[in-house]
Design goal:
68% helix, 2 domains, 2 helices, 2 strands, mainly alpha
């Protein structure tokens, strides 16, 4: 009869109790391997990866900060409903800049009147 076959005279608990010391040895051996080999190996892999990425992480952080500063620089200073007034004001300044070079101040007259140059 095979030693793994179930015998009617022995119960399942007897089979487990007879073989239980082998299980304790395997579990103990697993914990020793885990504690002494796998733990430090995993820690060293993480440390090597972190040291490799330190400089690149710094560059990525600076790049993202640059984009954030540029985004805030390009954003309007006033909230959203008032942007129409801002753009109208900018249009007025642009048109004023187009009109102003057409005139220059004449220094010969004491009243400093504007004379059209075109």
């Amino acid at each position: 009869m095979n030693r793994y076959s179930f015998n009617s005279s022995s119960t399942a608990s007897n089979i487990i109790e007879e073989k239980s010391w082998i299980l304790y040895i395997f579990v103990f051996q697993f914990y020793i391997v885990l504690k002494l080999i796998v733990g430090p190996l995993l820690f060293s892999i993480f440390a090597a990866t972190a040291s490799k990425w330190v400089t690149e992480i710094d560059y990525i952080w600076k790049f993202q900060r640059y984009h954030l500063v540029i985004e805030f620089d390009n954003r309007l200073a006033i909230p959203e409903p008032f942007t129409l007034f801002y753009y109208l004001f900018q249009l007025g300044l642009y048109l004023w800049g187009l009109i102003t070079p057409l005139y220059k101040f004449s220094g010969s007259n004491a009243s400093q009147r504007m004379v059209r140059t075109v």
